[in-house]
Amino acid sequence: MGSALELAVNNFVSPVILCFLLGLAAALARSDLSFPQAVAKGMSLYLLFAIGFKGGASVADHGVDALLIMTLIAAVILSAGLPFLAFFLLKVMTRLSTLDAAAVAAHYGSISIVTFVAATSVLQAQGVASEGFMVAVAAAMEAPAIVSALWLISQRGDSGAQKSGMSAELMREILLNGSIVLLVGAFAIGWITGAEGKAEIDPFITAPFKGVLCLFLLDMGLVAGRGLRESKGAMSRGLVLFGVIMPLAGAMFGLGAGALLGLSAGGVALMMVLSASASYIAVPAAMRVALPEANPAVYLTVSLGITFPFNVTIGIPIYIAVATAVIGG
Amino acid sequence: MEMHEAKRVEIIIEAIMTKRLTDLLMDSGVTGFSVLPVKGGSGRSGHWTREGTIGRADGMSCVVCMIRPDRLDGLLEAVMPVLERHIGVVNVTDAHVMRAERF
Questions:
Q1: Which of A42, A60, A92, A261 is the most exposed, fewest CB within 10 Å of its CB?
Q2: Does A136 contact B at CB distance below 8 Å?
């Protein structure tokens, strides 16, 4: 376990995580440092394309097997099931209304693709191999949690639930949101073109990747810090505690699922990261449409201001250390 | 120059609901409108700014249209399903336009 601790410390002082901390500190200190919106959007498009393409190329290299199918099924079950655990914890730990608790719970079944990309980068830096298809697993975990949250509300007869629901239009928007389309599309292109295709664009998707990720996480640190600064009054002690406990609990389910499936240490670590992370792009958008009465200051702050920084700075090193300690690597 | 009476309807709505709103406007026969970005503001949900928004759920947009006064009630009834549960402001002001046949 000593080497696991060393791994955790090394991860913590990586450029990626330190850039995030810089952004967080700058925002909390009220610095005027900021990224133009178009630049941040461009960086996220680049990262999604690169990670999707590399994942697809890796699957082309290793082929499709039962493990991929089983992992996708497990991912959907995890995404649909974790909101129930989150909802239970929120009801025990906070005084949130059913509507707000369900809205927050939806975020914790879904995933943060940035956390996933950061974890992938840290794994690569540590030389810990992972299954390329985990990119597809990430995409599969975006939507089921939203259905679970809406079901939770409809079962409890909340006034907002009478008007809410998963319309076909909303489902289309969730499944076809730009991040998912680019991630899955790049994955498919990487899969179709394989190693040859990857070789053609490798200088573009590999060499600048980490530098772009550093800048993007610097921006995400600024966003998270601003969110925290402006969230005064929206957060209770119980909610802050939930934002730290829930990712750890989710990660344990990811560990169990990954170990049962027989994933590699890197694959288990990524499964833990996906189960631990909380959405702050796709789910908030879905909640604004389906549950506009739920308070966005609550679900965005706990997801983006508490859980995201926790996962990027402390969670990822812990998940990688635990996965390598349990699975070996 | 001859001027004609019109109503200027300005709807500030959550950005994510903009398409739903403009679809309803089109369905109700209002085919002329403008969608403007909102840089930031403050309201019952607190202060916000466009800077640092990361998802489609963030931010507001402003939909502006000019219509004949007799079409106002129909328009407001048509867009109410999108507006009633969401953050936003609807305001209607008297205006004058030069080419009445366009509204």
A1: A92
A2: no
